[in-house]
Design goal:
By secondary structure, this protein is α/β, with parallel strands linked by helices. The protein has two domains: about 5-200 and about 235-260, 3-Layer(aba) Sandwich (Rossmann fold); about 205-235, no CATH class. The protein is about 40% helix and about 15% strand. It contains eight helices and seven strands, in the order E-H-E-H-E-H-E-H-E-H-E-H-H-H-E. A seven-stranded parallel beta sheet has the order 3-2-1-4-5-6-7, with helices on both faces. Helix 4 links the parallel strand 4 (about 90) and strand 5 (about 145-150). The longest helix is centred in the middle third of the chain and has 27 residues, at about 115-140.
Length: about 270
């Protein structure tokens, strides 16, 4: 591997690293040479993800923490610092949706559940800002590094139903740009902040929305594929090279961008 993409000696923390996409990203960071800390509030999910990764002892550490709870993240930070002494990379991949923050086919906007809307914003947007506060400071105390946020196609395009998720991810895009400028100006360019905007990938949360029990496409799945020039869903491993690039020296003059990994979805007009 080119030294520009080599993460050997780097220490990375991944929130939301126990899901399908997060586990793939953790595997990619490990393959590039980094040590990886997985953070989740669920110890069973943490252990399951670690077992799936099958990394050498010492290459992966498991941290309990809730991305919306500053106190729990401070405890996780202290544990990480005691084990590793530093942090170079933060990947904010925790996120999700709630039924009440979506508008079903038979509903209108006026059926929106404000409590669920706030909950989705808290998980996705606050769950990116708070880890950046706690772990980003640890990055500034060392030689610097990279923060990578996970956005979505829903941030930039009006995608039906997912009103709460869309608003939260749009906030992440803006926060990414703001923090990139702040970090570059205050820390001599040593800390870079970027985001990845995945297109449509199959995960546990959206599987039933996109696929029938027999694996065929639902009506919504067909609409998405028709709007994706590459005519398929993404594969989790297809996020890895973009992530490694944004974490490595290869992107040392890159900050404040949101990179689509979407099979052409964001480029297609539908005509």
């Amino acid at each position: 591997m080119s030294t520009l993409f080599d993460l050997s000696g780097k220490h990375a923390l991944l929130t939301g690293g126990t899901g399908a996409l997060g586990t793939a990203m953790a595997r990619g960071l490990l393959a590039a040479g980094a040590r990886v800390a997985l953070l989740s509030r669920n110890p069973e999910n943490l252990q399951s993800a670690a077992d799936e990764l099958g990394a050498d002892a010492g290459a992966v550490i498991l941290l309990r923490g809730d991305v919306t709870d500053r106190q729990s993240l401070e405890a996780a930070r202290d544990e990480l610092k005691s084990k590793w002494g530093k942090l170079d990379i933060l990947v904010n991949a925790a996120g999700g949706n709630r039924a009440g923050a979506t508008i079903g086919p038979e509903q209108t906007f006026f059926d929106l559940n404000l409590e669920d809307f706030a909950g989705v914003s808290k998980l996705n947007l606050d769950g990116t800002v708070i880890p950046s506060l706690i772990f980003g400071q640890l990055i500034t105390e060392g030689a610097g590094g990279s923060i990578v946020n996970i956005s979505s196609m829903a941030a930039d395009r009006a995608i039906t139903r997912v009103v709460g998720y869309s608003a939260a991810k749009a906030g992440i895009d803006n926060f990414t740009r703001w923090l990139a400028v702040e970090m570059a100006r205050k820390y001599d360019g040593r800390v870079r902040v970027n985001a990845i905007a995945p297109g449509f990938f199959i995960g546990e949360q959206n599987r039933r929305l996109l696929l029938e029990e027999d694996g065929s496409l639902t009506a919504r799945g067909k609409t998405i594929i028709a709007s994706t020039p590459m005519n398929r869903f993404g594969k989790a491993e297809e996020l890895i090279t973009t992530l490694v690039y944004l974490c490595a020296d290869a992107s040392s003059f890159v900050t404040g961008i949101v990179v689509p990994v979407d099979g052409g979805f964001s480029a297609f007009s539908g005509v």
